[in-house]
Amino acid sequence: MGRGSLVSKERDTCKKNSLTNINIHPHAHSGLNFVGVEQTMNNNGPGLFSDIGKKAKDLLTRDYLSDQKISFQTTTDAGVTLTSAATKKGGQSSGDVGVLYKYKNALLDVKLDTQSTVATTLTFTDIVPSTKTIASFKLPDFTSGKLEVQYFHRHATLTSAVALNHPQTIDLSATIGTPMFSFGAEAGYESSSSELTKYTAGISVNKPDSSASIVLGDKGDTIRASYIHHFDLLKKTAAVGEISRRLSTNENTFTVGGSYAVDGLTVVKAKLNNHGKLGAVLQHEIISKSLVTISSELDTNALDKTPKFGLALALKP
Fold first, then answer.
1. How far apart are the C-alpha atoms of 20 and 22, rounded to whole Å?
2. Which site from 69, 181, 260, 261 is most exposed, i.e. has the minimal number of CB atoms within 10 Å?
């Protein structure tokens, strides 16, 4: 076999691996689409439209809790991942158990909660080359089904999602560019009223240690700009700033925050906005891959009010 054939075969293998890489996070929050699953389809493309501004948003929102939660995750020798979680918020308690199983290019995710709701998500990669197909539904609500198709190209990403509920809604998004620079838009359409339910546009500039974005959302009523900068290779120490303005009310919100790795096991986070809301997070890895997270929020303009506290324990033996 010639050198050219070997290089071509290696390139095809790398592309296939990038389309099927699945990471399961032990402390991810549940949802109808992906429940605790993050999937990267193409590291050489611009990414999804929902990725624009996501890094800054995650640093300002992730792990800032106002409830108490304990979760457990383990994986059997057969490759089946079992999860369970219990949450208490206010005076309400809830819980769920779940199963995740990956077979070749397919991923099955089933979750049963204390409300007797069964949420199921089926994900297929490469049914058509460079695509990901996600089918999700909840039982006993048969009208909760949703079908989403994502297409990844070197210079563009397209998504289309159809909700089977009534009235039926269709969401479309497109992103054009490269991993370093991209811009895109999304829109939602309701069939019964023949009206757009949403339209959003955004632009993103990314570097290995930083990311900046501007998003125009809420049907053009809100503009949000954010910037995040990482100071270490593991991206555990970072600073972030976000400013948003609602045009209809002339209301501005400016938030600054950051994270700092105290050591290899402990991370602290903090954020403060111009309305006086101060938040803090302490996260510690008690044993390998098992985390305890303590968070609080204080209104500095109303010190007589009781601060909010949150606690999460994520165990992954």
1. 6
2. 181
For the chain, give every domain's residue range.
30-315
What pTM was computed for the model? Answer: 0.82
What's the average pLDDT block by block, 10 residues per block, for the chain (317 residues)?
A: 42 41 37 36 80 97 95 94 94 95 95 95 95 94 90 96 88 97 96 90 97 96 98 93 97 98 96 97 95 97 92 95
Domain 30-315: give its CATH architecture: Beta Barrel (2.40)
